[in-house]
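Minutes, project check-in
Item: structure for the 141-residue chain
Input as provided by the requester:
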Amino acid sequence: MNCRARFLSQLVSREVSENANGGRGLFDLAAPLGFFSCQFMREVWAPTGTRTDFSSIPRLPFIWLVLGDRYRKPAAIHDRVYDTHEVPRWVADALLLEMCTVVDSDIRYRWAVTRAMGKCSTWARRHAMWLGVRLFGGSHW
């Protein structure tokens, strides 16, 4: 069977507060956002009105440069799953990694050298996100 993990809708959000979360902002989804997971063979949805900060990445220059604002769709669904506890925490975090992988797979590189470097850097970036939620996300669960 050939399964393809994918987002089922586009991200549509509206800002609720620019100054919330230490300046990171707070947003509501203006339309449902869905993802189909091949790893767990299920759909996961964040309905309209889901509140998210997209990701609680510290605004330290190097960390933000590497990780910031790249995985908005995965972060919104991950925030929803963390709020509802509809799956165990390890599943929520595995879903985050799978969603980040889908985001990264949409990147196209023109040259073989940049493709090789890009695949390595995107792997490191998404695993850094995953490791961050595994190490520090427990307090938000």
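Outcome recorded: The chain has one domain: 6-140.
No further action items on this chain.
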